[in-house]
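S., here's the first fold you wanted:
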Amino acid sequence: MTTSAPVLAVVDPYGAGAQIAPALREHGWSCVAVTTADQPPDPLVHTWQPRDFDHHVRHTGDVAELGGQLGRLGAVGVVTGLETGSELADALCARNFPEYANSPALSASRRDKAAAQRELARAGLASLRQVHTADFAEVEQWLRDNELADAPWLIVKPARSAGSDAVRRVRPGDELRTAFESMAGRRNALGNVEQAVLVQECVQGTEYSVDTFSVGGVHEICGVTRYTKHSSGSVVGIYDTVEFVAPDDPACRQLLPYAREVLDALGVRFGPMHAEIMLRPEGPVLIELNPRIAGGQMTFLSGMATGSSQLDRLVDFFLGRHRPASGYRLLQQVMSVFVTARRTGVIRNPESLSGLADLPTAVRSTVTVPPGGLVRQTSDVFSVLGRVVLADRDRDRVELDRRRVKRVERDLHIDPVEAL
């Protein structure tokens, strides 16, 4: 059965992808939810909103059957919600909507962190040295072959997760073996069982994200953000801040050409992409590519910082209003400041967090404390206490409030308890 309204299918409409259907429904569109599993990933269950969809189709493994079902529902396109659905969205587009299809042959490289690095190396672009295996003996051989046995640090991570889930910084030797063995066979935050473990060299520099929207292989830059992160023991990549940078920032002169080359090498032709790139002294290198709209409130932040977002561009495209632009401009300074818990325990002064929303440049605060004040030590983006969004034309005012937020975080009184 078809509807008179135009229909878009969203595969795994969770996380930032949950915003797509409501945005299109405001313009009279109908949306179909296509899901690849019985349940959303645990950290994103709260983002699943069935009421935003007129139909819900569960993928059972037959792409041709699913494509035919979407055709009968009148779908005019398929987009990815969460990266767990990107390979299915690629297959459906290649079958039903080739004008929106990214390279089918490179679908895995846009989803899998290890495959992405292999493809970049094949294309002659800067990439990370790595080994992806279920056999620790192969890791030991890789260390010898790459003269990394004495490296100060290595990175161990799942190849198909998100949100800095289980990313660990370890030393070669016993630490590496322990981390490797604990990760093999583990179910990651997105619900995938990681049979193999990804081990990479640890690179130093400043991390950025480059958010894009592509049409016909032309990659429009929607925004660039600079990350600051910290480590706690083996836990690496704990977010402190995400800040938008202007397109004329010196870093962009290196980041943007490289980002476009990455998208070309990974077969990107259409849709939003979120690239995380480390800018090292010797130049940029991809950390990972996420084939979806950027998460973590980025649609909201981008709208404030630049006046538009990847979601706006996606909606405009399907409404026939898309006009290719040369890039973006920074309207004001926008920063998202993360509040973390330095240990597992009970917060004894939760009232200190209540005033964060009242800071002079604060626009929004999502910082909450569970009943009783019991919190887990922050280890990834899913376990932060929340974020405070700061915005102002004067960066000094934003920076002053950032320090205030971090002072409150530092002064949290957390009585340690046994691990939850």
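And the second, which I think is the more interesting of the pair:
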Amino acid sequence: MKGGTAMYQAGDRIIYGGSGVCQVKAVVPLEGSREDRLYYTLEPIYGSGIVYAPVDGPVFSRPLMTPEEVRDLLAQFPQIPAEPLAERSLTALKDHYVSVLKSHDCQALVGLIKGAYEKGRRAARRGKRPGAVDQRYLKSAQELLHGEIAAVLGIPLESVPDYIRAAVEGEADA
């Protein structure tokens, strides 16, 4: 799997593609497939269903950040620049957003979130609604980043925005 060279074990929590945080439930051959090909049985933490992913598959995966890495990321929030999202073409804008989401780079996700949020605020100041494309990808980036932060720190998902705000303002118990 992309993103890591070590094989994950049952019980590990990982980032897996667009599914976000998943718990590895098992590493076994899939019924009806080649016996020499192993699959992860993944359960999304903040979703439903089960994902069956080949161990050697092309979908991005990586271990979760450590608590120290989350604290470092939160400390860097103010310095992470907002992504300049001035693409005129919707196709180019979508391609940019997709590439950031697929990178699973937490700093890039923060930049995307900050940029889309600022773009929405500028639109609101002009009496316009935020762009639907911007809002959709803002929501996806927040789901990925907030899900990982919640899982790593053991806090409820819905508490993450307040936790980030407090951490950035120097009030969190990070």
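Why I say that: The first strand starts at residue 13 and ends at 16. The CA atoms of residues 50 and 169 lie 38 Å apart.

Talk tomorrow,
H.
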